[in-house]
Amino acid sequence: MTSELKHPVSHGGASGGDQALQRAMIALNSGHPADAERIAADVLKTNRRNVVALQVLANALLMQNRIADAVAPLEVAARGNHDPQIETMLGIVLRQVGRTEDALSWLKRAVKRRPPHAQAFYEFGCLLSFLNRDDEAVEAFNRGLDVAPLMPQLSVQLGYVLLRRKRYAEAKTAFGRALANAAGSPEALFGLAKVHQAVGDNAGAAGYFRQCLMSRPNDADLWLQLGYCLLEVGDLAAGYECFRSATRGDPQNYGNALSALVKSGRGRFWLKPSGAAQYFQGAKG
Question: Domain of 95?
Answer without folding.
Answer: 84-149
